[in-house]
Fold:
Amino acid sequence: MGEINISRISLQAAFGGLYIFYYVLSKGADFTEVPVVSGDLSLWFGLDKRRIFQLGGGATVIFSSDFSISEVPIVGWAGFKASL
Structure:
């Protein structure tokens, strides 16, 4: 995971997950576990000077362990963070 902060804006990136979590495909009552890796890129804006409250969004991508790009699910999201 990495993060770059410029004033009130933060850019965060993360990559990992090989054999740590599984993308589960269902075929009726049978489940097949497939090892995958995920990447995440997000942009956050601090609503106050100390960036205790942040508003942002990003995208998460899931790759199979052989990095085949024939089917790559991408999920966009928005969020709110509060730091203690």
